[in-house]
Amino acid sequence: MKILHKYILRQTLVTLIMTVAVLTFVLLFIGALRQFGDRNLSLGTFGQFLLLALPNMLSFTLPTAILAAALLVFGRLSADHEITAIRASGIGLGQITAPVILVGVALAGLCFYINATLAPICKYQLRTLFFRTVMERPSDLIEEGRYMKDFPGYVLFVGRKTGSSLADVVIYTLDDKGNVISSLRAKRGTVSVKRDADKLLLDLEDVRGDLRDQSDPTNFRKIRAGTTAQRYPVELDLGRILRKARSSKRISDFTLPELVDEIRNLQARGIYPAAALVEAHARASMATACVAFTLIGIPLGMKTSRRETSIGIALSLGLAFMFYFVMITANAVKDRPSLFPEAILWTPNLIFEFVGRSEEHTSELQSPCNLVCRLLLEKK
Nearest 5°: CA angle at 356, between 355 and 357? Predict the structure, then answer.
């Protein structure tokens, strides 16, 4: 029995490690492109990004990887009739699958630690890393074709950017409530940095502006003409950006103890903590998904009975997509308690565990005699 368990465990771990490595590399590569784009990064900064992004990526790749490992390993064992031979010798399905289920339980514990503590801390540090990098080359903060809300009190849009030259620039000035009180539009301009004062200087040309009624800023009928100038300098505070990034934490940046404290504080004030509750349940659900994916992956692998890696990867990605789609749906309705978003988060796990255990129980009902007959017929 020890030899059998070592054999299955070795097959599972090898497949698991390879799947985790491939999926994590792909997600890290995509994340690096999205976060930094065409910015020139130092090797040290890029290494920091990889280290800080790794825990968050592992929280997604580990459940998917154990599902793929279960599908691939038991698919190969079934295709080579090894499952049939093992069960014909009187060994039950529970004994065969025990090593893989234990791996799933161990991964669930690891995922829970990552989701509860490590990933939130690294996510917060990763967000501040981006702004620390920008401070080295502040002009990189400006991206073309996107409304940028990074500068407190302003919304900046740049139609085109070539080096330090800008075109089709729009700057909205906001009040304390986030309403637009004035705007500037420039056909072109240049960007430079005052490093001694941590200021980003926009030297705009051919500028026209408008003003809003402060008592009724959303009423477009009350907009009146404002500044008109051939040249108009605008200074944006870079120091406030970094200070704001360091001082402000999002719900996703909270560790699990911090989330629990936030939930209790909001409840004490009579506020329903929808976002914090959904975040806490989502982290626990993603951790237990390792067990649920293992239970559904084992019978699916035996049913497909395929040696091809592509089939197992495709099935695992399909099931993982269903799981994360439900999580996105629950997050979208987190402000509607009547829809029970916390319960929605646990639905895929419960379904996968129920279906997986049902399939294993059905397979267990096959007698060893039937298995022997099937093996002999297949050999003929």
Answer: 95
Q: What does the longest C-alpha to C-alpha distance in the chain come to?
A: 92
Among 245, 254, 248, smallest CA distance to 133 is for 245
φ, ψ of residue 241 in degrees (nearest 5): -65, -50
pLDDT higher than 70, residue 117: yes
Is residue 364 within 8 Å of 83, Cβ to Cβ?
A: no
pTM value is 0.69
Q: In the chain, helix, strand, coil percent, each to 5? A: 65, 15, 15
Task: Look at the block and give the residue holding tokens 């990887």.
Answer: 65
Quote the pLDDT of residue 135: 60
Mean pLDDT of 322-329: 84
Euclidean distance between CA atoms 175 and 321, whole angstroms:
41
Q: Is 143 helix (H, G, I), strand (E, B) or coil?
A: coil
| Sign, Cα dihedral of 281, 287, 288, 290 | positive
